[in-house]
């Protein structure tokens, strides 16, 4: 039996075990991140309204499948639901209302529930909150002066950091609002 340097064999064994553990950890982590990754493409249209997919992307969690469902809550009230893996993540609504209506005032409590609404410079009047945004603008609809209102509600706290979410909401509503208003026929 050969006598080597004392402790050398046990150090090799420990090093080999450590390398194997690191390899297993890397493989396990890679496997998890692949299964949790976004497997769908972020659309460039949301229920018929063109959007910059980079502005929509922050609100969409990882998952396998994104679905859009457009419907009307009335002739002047389009709605849109975005779901990931069957779970609602973004709700969008639009409404054409009389010019004497102040949608921000009417929806004050709802905006407060969305978290700390603050005025932003979008349309004639707008608010961005922690979990949603509303923009209002005057327009001509079917030959009459009206107001168009769009509401964006997030059902998930994505992005996780509130300040980033608010910034992303402001950018999104600023870009989305004119297209949604035009699609509704408000000029």
Q: What separation lies between the terminal Cα atoms?
A: 94 Å
What class, by secondary structure content?
A: alpha+beta
How many helices? The count is 5
Amount of helix: 25-40%
Shape, per Cα inertia axes? globular
Tell me, rounded to a whole number, the average pLDDT.
Answer: 87
Record field, number of beta strands: 9
**What string, H for helix and E for strand, traces the elements in order?**
HEEHEEEHHEEEEH
In the residues, how many domains can be counted?
2
Query: Looking at the chains present, what oligomeric state does this protein adopt?
Result: single chain
The radius of gyration computed from the alpha-carbon positions, rounded to a whole number of angstroms, is 25 Å
Within the largest sheet, what's the order of strands?
3-4-5-9-8-7-6
Biggest beta-sheet profile = 7 strands, antiparallel
Q: Which segments are poorly predicted (pLDDT under 50) over 5 or more consecutive residues?
A: 15-34
Q: Determine the strand fraction and express it as a percent band.
A: 25-35%
């Amino acid at each position: 039996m050969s006598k080597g340097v004392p402790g050398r064999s046990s150090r090799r064994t420990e090093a080999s075990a450590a390398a194997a553990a690191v390899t297993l950890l890397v493989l396990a982590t890679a496997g998890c991140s692949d299964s949790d990754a976004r497997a769908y493409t972020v659309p460039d249209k949301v229920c018929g309204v063109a959007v910059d997919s980079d502005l929509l992307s922050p609100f969409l969690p990882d998952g396998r499948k994104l679905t859009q469902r457009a419907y009307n809550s009335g002739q002047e009230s389009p709605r849109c639901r975005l779901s990931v893996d069957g779970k609602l993540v973004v709700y969008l609504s639009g409404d054409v209302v009389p010019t004497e209506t102040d949608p921000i005032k009417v929806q004050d409590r709802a905006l407060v529930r969305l978290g700390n609404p603050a005025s932003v410079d979008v349309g004639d009047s707008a608010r961005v909150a922690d979990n949603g945004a509303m923009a209002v603008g005057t327009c001509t609809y079917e030959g009459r002066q009206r107001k168009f209102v769009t509401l964006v509600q997030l059902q998930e706290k994505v992005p996780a950091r509130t300040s980033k979410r608010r910034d992303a909401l402001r950018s999104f509503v600023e870009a989305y609002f004119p297209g949604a208003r035009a699609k509704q026929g408000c000029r």
